[in-house]
């Protein structure tokens, strides 16, 4: 299962009965969003709106909106297949533990050394039509407004491409973009993201023009990599190639040296002036709350390239669960082997939809010594974007962190709040709504593992209640006789 571009994926989903074409006229103004919200919450199909009032470009939404579709998007029937491949790759990393950074670098090198490098091509479907100067008008695209209090229309599923001014390595990130007018948008580069890092580096170097390109649509694995929290010097396209088992075709942009995925539907080319910022928002966000106005860089669009008959990809975020939950679930699964490499006691991790990734992280560990749960908390708080986690709950290896009932039962029973809750502080996600000041605030770690005497618990741990196998067998054998069913 391999998809060259978005349309191949659409055909595949349609053949599987997982996509509906909607020909009834719909508005970009909240209507698509309301329909998509209902479908996501019901586990419904991907939607292709073919008749968006005022536009002849169709809008695709909810393509990733289930575990099954997300797996297909990455070219596998079940995500476990991909997790196994990642695990195999990590197995290649030998040698003594030299620290997280070195391990991640080695991983990066391995991916780069892989045979699925991006390939540069000279002709590309995404450049069939080239619009410059007076022909540049973002309102020619069916960009949707998602929620009533939103500050405007937002591009919600972009692959924003920028370049590290020192290494030349490109970054591809999914960051929303508010349309200010036909030629400018906001660039919602949050504090801890790689796009922001590039922006800051350009600013520090006194560079006055930072080239940026934005790819819309493309093969579904490549689009997904924009949301993956890869280390800064790791090229998302190498990872996309590894996932697809085929290098991503890249083409030089028309107005800069940036390389953009050739199979994109639409590409916006332009620049950001480091230091030029303006109010962006409000926006109905992943948290289920509006993110209110804040200052963010401005993206100036100089050129739009596109296919002759482009498809516009969109997504909405809002009160969970939303489509992005499935995108994040893949990240959780694929990054688990890498986390285990650094923290070998980790058995499983669950970042439930309600916790929108950075708010709540549930971890099970194979505990071997006192204080190990706290070691894991600190380890996770030192690990890339996991540093933004607000609540980390650690349980023993035999607790299924994917089962909310089991987890709540164990946690509520196992903790003595005066002993097992660790309050600390650190960096927080820009989207956090509770902290006293933006970007920094409190964090809590809850150690719900079974504690021993060294951890201050002098009593014996009581056994779990489990019926004897003899009685279970007896009841199984007589089940029909009871006449209950
Ligand atoms: C649908 C969607 C929208 C997102 N919007 C933003 C955003 O506006 N700003 C942001 O910084 N991160 C946003 N993210 C999260 C980033 O894509 C994610 O943190 C990713 O790792 C960033 O890439 P980077 O690590 O290369 O910076 C969004 C993710 C998804 C799935």
Short description:
The protein has 485 residues and is an alpha+beta fold. It is built from 13 helices and 23 strands. It folds into two domains: 6-313, Pnp Oxidase, Chain A; 343-455, UbiD C-terminal domain-like (3-Layer(aba) Sandwich).
Structural notes for this entry:
The protein is an alpha+beta fold. The chain has two domains: 6-313, Pnp Oxidase, Chain A (Roll); 343-455, UbiD C-terminal domain-like, CATH 3.40.1670. The chain is built from 13 helices and 23 strands. The chain has helices at residues 6-15, 31-41, 67-73, 79-90, 100-113, 194-204, 220-225, 236-244, 323-342, 372-381, 404-414, 417-420, 469-482; strands at residues 19-22, 46-49, 59-61, 119-121, 129-132, 154-155, 158-163, 170-173, 177-181, 184-186, 210-216, 249-252, 259-261, 266-280, 283-284, 290-291, 294-306, 312-313, 346-350, 360-365, 391-396, 421-427, 440-447. Strands 5, 6, 7, 8, 9, 10, 11, 14 and 17 form a nine-stranded antiparallel beta sheet that branches. β20 (360-365), α10 and β21 form a beta-alpha-beta unit. The two termini are 45 Å apart. The model has no long low-confidence stretch (mean pLDDT 95). Flavin mononucleotide binds at residues 156, 171, 173-176, 188-190, 193-195, 226-230, 315, 317, 324, 327, 385. The site of flavin mononucleotide has 22 residues, from β8, α6 and α9.
